[in-house]
Design goal:
The chain is an alpha+beta fold and 358 residues long. The protein folds into 4 domains: 115 residues, Beta Barrel (conserved putative lor/sdh protein from methanococcus maripaludis s2 fold), CATH 2.40.420.20; 87 residues, Beta Barrel (Elongation Factor Tu (Ef-tu), domain 3); 55 residues, RNA polymerase II/Efflux pump adaptor protein, barrel-sandwich hybrid domain (OB fold (Dihydrolipoamide Acetyltransferase, E2P)), CATH 2.40.50; 74 residues, Helix Hairpins (Orthogonal Bundle). The strands form 4 sheets. A 6-stranded antiparallel beta barrel has the order 3-12-15-14-13-16. Strands 4-11-9-6 form a 4-stranded antiparallel beta sheet, with no helix packed on it. It has a 4-stranded antiparallel beta sheet with strand order 8-7-5-10. A hairpin with a 4-residue loop joins strand 14 and strand 15. Helix 3 runs antiparallel to helix 4.
C-alpha cells in the first residue's frame, strides 16, 4: 500500500510540472514528508582516508628492559608474574649467591685493613711531630693507608656492581630490582633454579608508548607521508606516521611505515595485529555523508540539496568510503541541507522514472 501511495504521489508531482530545470526536483514540503526523505546538514571533516592496511603492535626498543642477575646463585623467591605492574626499584626476585657472600667478605676485610692502616698512619704522624721517628716512616704508613683506601673502594664497588649492599655484616641474599616503572611481559626462570651470572630473569617494558608497524603496498607508498594520521580499528585512538621505511619486504612486496601511539590505552597490546586507516589533512573542503545520500547516474555521483521549491541536483566527487558513510567534495559552502536518506526516490523523480524505490 505504501509503495502504491508513494507512486501516486510521484505521478501527481510529475503531472504538476516538477522539473523547472534539468537539475532541479520540485517537491512540496508535504510531498517530501510523505516520501520519507530524511534531511540534514553536511558534516565537515578535515581528514581524507588514504588506505587501509594491517599493522603489528611493537614495544619501542628503548622502552624494554631485560632484568638479569649479576651473580650466579639459586632463585629463592619470585615476586612478580607476567602482566603485573611494577614500579622502579621494586624487588622482583631474591637470589642466594655464594659469590655475593665472598664479595661481601672481601669488602669487610678491606674495611678492617683500612682501619688498621689509618690508626698506624695517625700514630706515626704524631710520633714524627714529636721527633720520635723519622718522616720516612710516616711516608711509608701513609702509602699503606692510601693503598688500603683504594682496596676498600674497589671491594665496595665490586659489591655494588654485583647488587650487594655495603653493610657491616655478611649477606648472601641478592635482591633483583626493576630498573623502570612498567609491566612485566616475560618471566624466564622459576623458583629453585640455579642460574649463572647475567642470566635473564624478567623482561619489563614501559607500555605508555607503542609502535605500529604498518605494511604499505609498495606501489602506494608514494601516497603516504610523515605526519599522516592513523586511526586504529574499533578504537577511538589515533597515532601518527613517524617513519617510512627505505627497503621492501621481499616476500610481501610491502614497505613498513611506523606510527607512534602515545599514552597507549590498555585496549592496544604489544604483539597484537590490527587493521588501521591512514588519513591525510585535506587542503580543500570535504564532508562526510551517509551512503544513502548519494545517487549514481551515468558513472557520476550526485547529492540532492534542499532549496525553496524542492531539491537541486549537485555533482560530487567521492574521495573515500568506510562502512555506511562516504567522504565527498563539491561546490558547497557547508551550510546546505541535504537529503540524507531517500536519494533513490529523488533520483527516480529527477530522471522521470516514476519509481518510489529507495
Amino acid at each position: 500500500m505504501r509503495k502504491c501511495f508513494v507512486f501516486l504521489l510521484l505521478c501527481s508531482a510529475l503531472n504538476s510540472p516538477l522539473f523547472a530545470a534539468e537539475q532541479t526536483v520540485q517537491l512540496s514540503a508535504e510531498h517530501i514528508e510523505n516520501l520519507g526523505i530524511l534531511q540534514g546538514k553536511l558534516k565537515p571533516i578535515s581528514q581524507i582516508p588514504v588506505l587501509f592496511a594491517p599493522a603489528n603492535v611493537l614495544i619501542p626498543p628503548n622502552n624494554e628492559y631485560v632484568v638479569s642477575t649479576a651473580q650466579a646463585g639459586i632463585v629463592n623467591q619470585l615476586n612478580a608474574a607476567i602482566g603485573d605492574e611494577v614500579k622502579k626499584g621494586d624487588v622482583l626476585a631474591q637470589i642466594d649467591s655464594p659469590n655475593l657472600l665472598s664479595l661481601h667478605s672481601n669488602y669487610l676485610k678491606a674495611s678492617s685493613a683500612l682501619q688498621l692502616a689509618s690508626s698506624a698512619y695517625q700514630r706515626d704522624k704524631a710520633l714524627a711531630k714529636d721527633g720520635i721517628i723519622a718522616n720516612r716512616r710516616v711516608q711509608e704508613t701513609e702509602s699503606q693507608f692510601s693503598a688500603a683506601s683504594l682496596d676498600v673502594q674497589e671491594a665496595k664497588r665490586l659489591l655494588e656492581i654485583a647488587g650487594g649492599n655495603a653493610s657491616g655484616k655478611l649477606d648472601s641474599h641478592l635482591s633483583i630490582r626493576s630498573p623502570i616503572s612498567g609491566v612485566v611481559i616475560e618471566r624466564m626462570v622459576v623458583a629453585g633454579s640455579r642460574i649463572d651470572n647475567l642470566t635473564p630473569i624478567y623482561r619489563v617494558a614501559n607500555l605508555q608508548t607503542l609502535w605500529l608497524e604498518i605494511a604499505i603496498p609498495q606501489e602506494r607508498i608514494g601516497e603516504i607521508k610523515i605526519g599522516d594520521s592513523v586511526a586504529i580499528d574499533n578504537t577511538p585512538f589515533k597515532a601518527e606516521i613517524s617513519l617510512i621505511g627505505q627497503s621492501v619486504v621481499v616476500e610481501s612486496q610491502t614497505i613498513l611505515a611506523r606510527a607512534v601511539v602515545k599514552n597507549a590505552p590498555k585496549q592496544i597490546r604489544a604483539g597484537q595485529k590490527l587493521n588501521v586507516q591512514i588519513s591525510q589533512v585535506s587542503k580543500q573542503k570535504v564532508f562526510q555523508v551517509p551512503n544513502t545520500a548519494i545517487a549514481q547516474n551515468d558513472g557520476k555521483a550526485f547529492v540532492f540539496v534542499r532549496n525553496a521549491t524542492g531539491f537541486i541536483v549537485k555533482p560530487i566527487t567521492q574521495l573515500g568510503k568506510k562502512d555506511e558513510e562516504s567522504i565527498i567534495s563539491g561546490d558547497f559552502s557547508g551550510d546546505e541541507i541535504l537529503a540524507l536518506k531517500g536519494a533513490a526516490v529523488l533520483k527516480a523523480n529527477w530522471l522521470g522514472l516514476g519509481s518510489a524505490e529507495e
